[in-house]
From TrEMBL:
Keywords: Oxidoreductase. GO terms for molecular function: oxidoreductase activity. It comes from the Eukaryota. Belongs to the short-chain dehydrogenases/reductases (SDR) family. Pfam families: adh_short (PF00106). This is Short chain dehydrogenase/reductase. InterPro entries: NAD(P)-bd_dom_sf, SDR_fam. The lineage of its organism: Eukaryota, Fungi, Dikarya, Ascomycota, Pezizomycotina.
Length: 319
């Protein structure tokens, strides 16, 4: 068990009632018994989450469930402010909430019987809202909180904006961990909205680095492969029967905790595939000259340095 003379941290995890989120909450509670671990999820999961805290957590007095819908900006801002007022600050945020569509987004046979027109895929927007919008907003709020007080670790989308917002005036460095997926790098499964949203999280990881560095914040990510959760229930047994290795939620949770606290990491993303761990972003950067060719990679590198030197991309504004 780690020993430290620093004051107890306050750790927020969204999507924490089940799966990887619950395992991550348990991991922090187990390793850091004096820290305050906040499990945030939809109110429908409150009873089961509180039961898990009472019966499974090693230090249940230091774990609390708070209901929130991460797609509701008002609820998210209230969540962050409540934690700050109750615990005096926020040090770690794992914005882990994520969903997957229940039917194919690109179903070209899903036609309205009355009009004969193709129906809009409402589920696609729901998946993008939860997986991407939720992460963006959480990160901003967290950044501002970090500026106000203490370290902060974030995994998520709405969590990203809120976190950054709450961090921007703090004098101590913070850490953000975004939970993406192998689907953030590979799209062969055909799960359209989920794959698109997780690619968006990888883009967010890269795009957030300029702002993060400005405030001394570390933003990293984890990309789990096949992990047995409710999201993968329809595939898990056949995957096992095929002799393919899976992740365990607690294995992913261990990696999240390690990435969050590793002060040497900036802009990294660790792929977790069973016993295999691979760093994705640095290896991608090393392969760019081979992938693009030395000439194109050199030209694009020069162009990016130009944008950096002029203070960033000049936004067009609205007409």
């Amino acid at each position: 068990m780690p020993t430290t003379t620093s004051p107890p941290k306050t750790i927020l995890i969204t999507g924490a009632a089940r799966g990887i989120g619950l395992a991550t909450a348990y991991q922090f509670n187990r390793i850091y018994p004096t820290d305050n671990v906040i499990l945030a999820d939809l109110s429908v999961y409150q009873t089961t989450a509180e039961y898990q805290i009472r019966t499974s957590f090693l230090y249940p007095d230091h774990a609390t469930f708070l209901p929130v819908d991460i797609m509701d900006w008002g609820q998210m801002t209230t969540l962050f402010r409540t934690i700050v007022e109750r615990y005096g600050g926020l040090d770690v945020v794992v914005a882990n909430a994520g969903v997957m569509e229940s039917k194919p987004v690109l179903d070209l046979e899903d036609v309205d019987e009355e009009t004969g027109e193709l129906k809009e895929s409402v589920e696609a927007w729901w998946v993008l809202d939860v997986n991407l919008k939720g992460t963006v907003n959480s990160m901003c709020c967290w950044f501002d909180l970090w500026v106000l007080r203490g370290n902060l670790l974030v995994v998520g989308h709405e969590a990203l904006r809120l976190a950054m917002y709450h961090m921007k005036e703090n004098e101590r460095p913070g850490s953000v961990v975004l939970v993406t997926s192998t689907s953030g790098y590979f799209g062969g499964t055909g799960v359209t909205a989920y794959v698109a949203s997780k690619h968006g999280v990888v883009g967010l990881l890269r795009a957030s680095q300029v702002t993060a560095q400005k405030y001394g914040i570390r933003v990293n990510a984890v990309a789990p492969f096949m992990t047995p959760t409710t999201m993968t229930a329809g595939l898990a047994q056949r995957w096992k029967d095929a002799g393919l290795e899976t992740n365990a939620p607690d294995r992913v949770a261990e990696v999240i905790e390690q990435i969050a606290l590793d002060t040497t990491r900036r802009g990294s993303c660790t792929l977790v595939a069973g016993k295999y761990l691979r760093e994705m972003e640095s290896t991608r950067a090393e392969l760019l000259p081979t992938w693009l060719g030395e000439d194109v990679a050199g030209f694009m590198g020069k162009a990016m340095r130009f944008i950096t030197d002029i203070g960033g991309y000049v936004l067009p504004g609205r007409n």
